[in-house]
Write a structure and sequence with these properties.
This protein is an all-alpha fold. It is built from 5 helices and no strands.
């Protein structure tokens, strides 16, 4: 589990490779109960670095990747953890008006 999170965390924002896709998919398959608060917080910080606005090449990343990333973010946020408000503020430009 730590290896998957580290892989995402150490990847460059906007760079998508087979290993990153595998890491995201693998984390989606792990039961929520197996993810500690530390795992959830570390994974969220790594995933937020890949959001549009944080990444210069966000347009070049395929939609299926974003679906997986957003699904993982929802899964991570299902359990109570206090995330930094700055993460939500960064999403504001992505939200429909």
């Amino acid at each position: 589990m730590n290896d998957f999170i580290s892989l995402i965390d150490n990847s460059k924002a906007g760079k998508l490779g087979p290993a990153i896709k595998l890491a995201v998919q693998s984390l989606l398959e792990i039961p929520s109960e197996a993810l500690s608060r530390t795992h959830r917080e570390t994974a969220m910080k790594a995933l937020v670095a890949h959001l549009p606005g944080e990444s210069e090449n966000a347009e070049s990343i395929i939609v299926d990747y974003w679906r997986s990333v957003l699904a993982l973010m929802v899964k991570l946020m299902e359990r109570p953890t206090f995330y930094e408000v700055s993460h939500v503020i960064r999403w504001k430009p992505c939200l429909p008006r």
